[in-house]
Write a structure and sequence with these properties.
Layout (H helix, E strand, L loop, with lengths): L32 H5 L5 E5 L5 E8 L2 E8 L6 E2 L10 E6 L2 E6 L8 E6 L6 E2 L8 E5 L7 E6 L8 E6 L5 E5 L5 E6 L5 E7 L3 E6 L8 E7 L4 E6 L6 E5 L7 E6 L4 E7 L6 E7 L4 E8 L3 E5 L2 H13 L4 E7 L5 E8 L2 E9 L4 E7 L12 E7 L5 E7 L9 E7 L13 H8 L3 E5 L9 H5 L8 H15 L3 E11 L1 H12 L6 E5 L5 H6 L9 H7 L7 H7 L12 E6 L7 H13 L6 E4 L9 H19 L15 E3 L1
Parallel strand pairs: 30-31, 30-32, 32-33, 33-34, 34-35, 35-36
Antiparallel strand pairs: 1-2, 2-3, 3-4, 5-6, 6-7, 7-8, 9-10, 10-11, 11-12, 13-14, 14-15, 15-16, 17-18, 18-19, 19-20, 21-22, 22-23, 24-25, 25-26, 26-27, 28-29, 29-31
Length: 647
């Protein structure tokens, strides 16, 4: 789940009612629930810096662990032995060494571990309780060190340390003065820039050498973002994503000495541009990526453009991306996927033009049985146009269907085109699924984002209500069979929809969703403290705007909830504490509202472990079938009669 502080039917390409007397197409076969949510065969492929090995993550003891194999074949070797939680992520620290991250039960206090490619030398590099670690720079030209960010000295902030991944020795490279939110290294691995915030204003800090103190060179309101991406290849200037003086973020070249914008590298009139790709070997920028309905590229480099065209020709109809390469940039890992398949990972050798499939992610899912995800546009009550995605059950006339409004979390992220396991599962069960980029979603410019400020439960929620109405007006949804479902902010929106518009939804599902904005803002992790003022600006100030936050908190309108509600929560969630779910469950139970409550003691902000995902979605399947009339596996686990499940 995403982090919380993550026209007519015919015009949509939807089948119109059949009046020709022809026989209707049959619904798609009922696909086993497990097939949508089980662990992948393999994922997260990377090629080692020297191009000698391929690594990936695959299930072992029902948990995702890291494996490695010589690039030209041979026996695969498992490098990790996680049994409680999946390995959260990994990368190559050297030609012969991998480092990986793991937390404890979803608490997000990640430790960094190292292991050699032959399985030897495993060690916990950061064996500090209650401390969170992230990677600042993998130092591609240093076989022994990486730069990490760690809140060991002060739980509220992250200092930069140079860590020897062979010995575990470390030394501080940059001490956080108290509000630095991100650090930027140059191409020689030197910490040369940073962004700090007091929650309202952001400041760019810069130093020409590591011996000099940082100084402020640019100050902006948080609404105006200037986000450094990486240094120019001569280490003198910065590429950044900036909306300073414009609505849509553009890629710019910045003078870090003065904070002055030198050149607009690329901008798009419709959406933000925030991603820039480059070649470390050839010292050139290669492409910018942006997303309208789908991801698109703007190329600066002919070699990279031709490579993309060649791969897309070899993998027609797929969204194709390069996800890893060796240092020589001749051996690559390629990912292919679409809205109807999780796709596959491939090995590509640019010297020989060989493209070799490594593994399908979920080969048990038949692309032909999946539903297309169609971009649509919805006009809100105040005229704002909301980009959205509609997924309809295959083989079923899109008329008077049960429907699920599936709300993204964040809220300051966006939905995008591509394979969504939850949407495909719900469509297979017979539901029309609508995903809306409501106001406040990012990627559509500053004005669209700012329209969501202090609109939790208000205009942001109105957008979702209008989307539900749109489904009815199109004739797609039965107005008496619409559910609202989401995780994190999406879980909040589900609670808000049930409480503030109780006649719109026949059921709701809240997954790690906050119910009380006062307690949400009081209990954020300590390392979010620098963003507290910004959250007050965007959500509301609990001291100065008590009435606003009380009105927007579903807990205080729990007496208005009348439709059935399913709630799920990770016991160790550091972002949305378990108390957020406990308190609204308690309020509803006192009134006799049907509120099955799933709590998993070994989970945090979302369910990582496969058995917990399957349990949750089995509950979703039964809950929606009972209240909306969709399909369900006949031998599924009997969840609907349970009041509370703890595991």
């Amino acid at each position: 789940m995403t982090a919380i502080f993550g026209t007519a039917a015919s015009a949509l390409g939807v089948n119109s009612p059949d009046t020709s007397g022809k026989r209707e197409a049959a619904p798609a076969p009922l696909i086993p629930l497990k097939d949508f949510f089980r662990n992948p065969v393999a994922a997260g492929y990377q090629v080692s810096p020297g191009g000698d090995y391929i690594s990936w993550m695959a299930p072992w003891e029902n948990r995702l662990n890291v494996f490695v194999q010589p690039v030209d074949g041979g026996k695969a070797l498992r490098l990790t032995s996680a049994t409680k939680r999946n390995v959260a992520g990994y990368f190559w620290a050297a030609k012969d060494q991998i480092v990986y991250l793991q937390d404890d039960g979803g608490d997000e206090n990640f430790h960094l571990f190292a292991v050699n490619a032959d399985g030897s030398g495993k060690k916990d590099l950061t064996p500090f309780p209650g401390v969170r670690v992230g990677v600042v720079d993998d130092l591609r030209d240093d076989e022994d060190h990486i730069l990490i960010g760690m809140n060991k000295r002060d739980a509220r902030v992250f200092d930069v340390y140079r860590l020897n991944t062979r010995t575990g020795e470390m030394r501080m490279e940059a001490e956080n003065p108290g509000s630095v939110s991100s650090w930027i290294t140059d191409h020689d691995g030197r910490v040369r820039a940073a962004v700090q915030t007091d929650g309202v204003n952001s400041e760019l800090l810069y130093r020409a050498t590591e011996k000099e103190p940082f100084r402020k060179t640019l100050v902006t309101d948080f609404r105006e973002s200037v986000d450094p991406i990486f240094f120019t290849f001569d280490n003198k200037e910065l590429y950044a994503s900036s909306n300073l003086g414009r609505d849509k973020a553009a890629i710019v070249r910045l003078d870090p000495e003065t904070g002055r914008e030198l050149e607009v590298v690329f901008e798009h009139p419709e959406v933000d541009v925030g991603h820039l790709l480059g070649s470390e070997k050839r010292k050139v920028i290669t492409a910018a990526t942006f997303t309208r309905d789908k991801r698109e590229y703007h190329f600066f480099d002919d070699w990279r453009r031709k490579l993309q065209e060649n791969l897309e020709k070899k993998l027609p109809g797929m969204e194709v991306s390069l996800v890893s390469s060796d240092r020589d940039e001749t051996r690559f890992i390629v990912r292919s996927q679409s809205d109807r398949t999780r796709g596959a990972s491939w090995f590509y050798d640019a010297k020989t033009d060989e493209l070799r499939k490594l593994a399908d992610v979920s080969p048990w899912l038949d692309e032909k049985q999946m539903a297309p995800m169609k971009p649509v546009r919805i006009t809100a009550r105040d005229g704002l146009v909301l980009p959205a995605y509609l997924t309809l059950p295959p083989g079923v006339e899109p008329k008077n269907l049960p429907a699920v409004l599936y709300v993204h979390g964040g809220p300051w992220v966006r939905d995008s085109w591509g394979f969504d396991g939850s949407a495909q599962f719900l469509a297979n069960r017979g539901y029309a699924v609508l995903q809306v980029n409501y106001r406040g979603s990012t990627g559509y410019g500053r004005a669209f984002w700012e329209k969501g400020f202090k609109q939790w439960g208000k205009a942001m929620q109105d957008d979702l209500t209008d989307a539900a109405k749109w489904l009815v007006d199109q004739g797609i949804a039965d107005p008496k069979r619409i559910a609202i479902y989401g995780g994190s902010y999406g879980g909040y929106a589900a609670l808000a929809g049930m409480a503030f518009t109780p006649d719109v939804y026949a059921a709701g599902i809240s997954f790690v969703g906050p119910s009380n904005l006062f307690t949400l803002l009081e209990t954020v992790p300590p390392y979010w403290e620098p963003m507290r003022k910004m959250n007050y600006e965007m959500i509301g100030d609990p001291e100065k705007e008590k009435d606003l936050l009380r009105a927007a908190s579903p807990l205080f309108s729990a007496d208005k909830i009348k439709a059935p509600l399913l709630i799920a929560q990770g016991a160790n969630d550091p972002r949305v504490k378990k108390a957020e779910s406990d308190q609204i469950v308690s309020a509803l139970k006192k009134r006799g509202v049907d509120v099955p409550y799933i709590v998993k003691d070994n989970e945090g902000h979302g369910f990582s472990n496969e058995e917990n995902r399957l349990y949750f979605y089995r509950a979703v399947e039964k809950f929606l079938a009972r209240h909306l009339g969709g399909r369900a596996e006949p031998d599924g686990e009997k969840i609907s009669e349970l009041d509370e499940v703890k595991n």
